[in-house]
Design brief:
With 102 residues, the chain is an alpha+beta fold. It is built from 2 helices and 4 strands. A 4-stranded mixed β-sheet has the order 1-2-4-3, with helices on one face.
Length: 102
């Protein structure tokens, strides 16, 4: 059984286990990970942009951050750049984001 989420194409299936259809990063595959833990604004966004530049369209980047400002910054970054913010949440007191490169 697969869980389908509207923001994903039909070829991007999530594994089972999502509660009430909610997307959790644990159920999403990613192609690359960037750990911005300990970095303060604007470095998480600057380095996220640099990481995305090395990726191809459609690939997913997982970003881990400790800066609380990264939540608003990542949303604005995704909107401004056209990269899809697939997930924004917390894991072990850190902020976790999944961005799909446009």
């Amino acid at each position: 059984m697969a869980v389908w989420v509207g923001i994903l194409s039909s070829t991007e299936q999530l594994t089972t286990g999502a509660v009430s259809g909610a997307l959790t990063e644990a159920h999403m595959n990613f192609d690359k990970e960037f750990d911005a833990s300990g970095l303060a604004c604007p470095l998480p966004i600057v380095k996220t942009k640099k990481s995305l530049q090395t990726m191809t369209s459609g690939q997913v980047l997982r970003v881990i951050a400790t800066d609380p400002g990264s939540v608003c910054d990542m949303e604005a970054f995704a909107e401004q750049t056209g990269n899809a913010l697939l997930y924004s949440g917390t894991e072990n007191s850190k902020f976790v984001f999944l961005l799909k490169k446009a």
